[in-house]
Write a structure and sequence with these properties.
Helix content is 36%, strand content 12%. The chain is α/β, with parallel strands linked by helices. A four-stranded parallel beta sheet has the order 5-4-6-7. A three-stranded parallel beta sheet has the order 2-1-3, with helices on both faces. Helix 8 links the parallel strand 4 and strand 5.
């Protein structure tokens, strides 16, 4: 939903859509936190008898959706334009098709138009690039998602680079990633899962500045941008990956632990210290039998 809100703002900021309208926006966290004054963080004291608090991402998502629906409706009434999302889906991967269905449903719930371009598994790279070019040139499409991963015979780098940086709502274009990595630079879009992680932490009052954060996984989609965002919010960030020795020793030092590997039960209880905040950003499709 955060990526969709970015689409709305891109429409309002585009000169061809200029308007005196000021949307009724919900407060999202800023990209950078204040850093001109350094205050050493106090030594944390953990209460081992403290009750576990579950972070309710669904309720936060529903709050954002409700406000976003109002904002989109206001936009339609004021400037007579609706945000548009274009998605390119290649192949028949169950997880990719599931993610695209979720995005399409979310668009419908808030009033954003969406179009999905379905291409076969064995399509050529030229066909994918042509689909990207068509969406780049389509005025009613303000954001483009290329659902990853792509089949191995296609160059993700070449295809992502072909997306108009001003429509790169996933935030994967090298210009957006580069600006995210540099303090003081503002990417046009931030990868939504990583931005959602920071949003969860702030809405639950979790202090990030000066805390030790550990990110398990370093994928370009989630792990890398999450570690960059945590650094921009002045956490001390460590990244654990498959070549890391003694990962449990590193995770036991974490005040904030983010997992991006999609492996159930990878992080065990003895990997965690009391009071740590844990966010699982991975996803795993689980077969469920339904009995009627």
């Amino acid at each position: 939903m955060l990526e969709m809100r970015s689409i709305c703002w891109r429409i309002l900021c585009n000169r061809s859509f200029s308007s005196s309208v000021t949307p009724n926006c919900f407060p999202l966290v800023s990209l950078d936190r204040p850093h001109d004054i350094w205050h050493p963080p106090p030594t944390p004291h953990y209460n081992t008898h403290k009750k576990t608090v579950e972070i309710d991402g669904k309720s936060i998502a529903n709050d954002i959706k409700a406000t976003l629906a109002t904002e989109v409706n206001h936009m339609k009434n004021s400037i007579k334009k609706a945000p548009g999302l274009g998605v390119i889906l290649v192949g028949e991967r169950k997880d990719s098709r599931s993610f695209v269905r979720i995005k399409k449903k979310a668009c419908e719930e808030v009033g954003i138009t969406s179009v999905v371009v379905n291409l076969p598994e064995n399509c050529t790279e030229t066909e994918v690039l042509d689909a990207v070019s068509a969406l780049n040139n389509q005025e009613s499409v303000h954001g483009i998602l290329v659902q990853l991963p792509l089949p191995c015979h296609l160059s993700e780098q070449k295809i992502i680079n072909a997306v108009n940086v001003e429509k790169d709502v996933d935030g994967f274009h090298p210009v957006n990633v580069g600006n995210l990595a540099m303090t003081g630079r503002e990417p046009l879009f931030i990868p939504c899962a990583s931005r959602g992680c920071i949003e969860l932490l702030h809405r639950y009052g979790v202090e990030i500045i000066g805390r030790k954060a550990v990110v398990i996984g370093r994928s370009n989609i989630t792990g890398l941008p999450t570690s960059l965002l945590l650094q921009r919010h002045h956490a001390t960030v460590s990244v654990v990956h498959k070549f890391t020795k003694n990962p449990e020793e590193i995770t036991r030092e974490a005040d904030i632990l983010v997992s991006d590997v999609g492996v159930p039960n990878l992080v065990r209880g003895h990997w965690l210290k009391p009071g740590v905040v844990v966010i699982d950003m991975g996803s795993t499709l689980v077969a469920v039998d339904f009995f009627i």
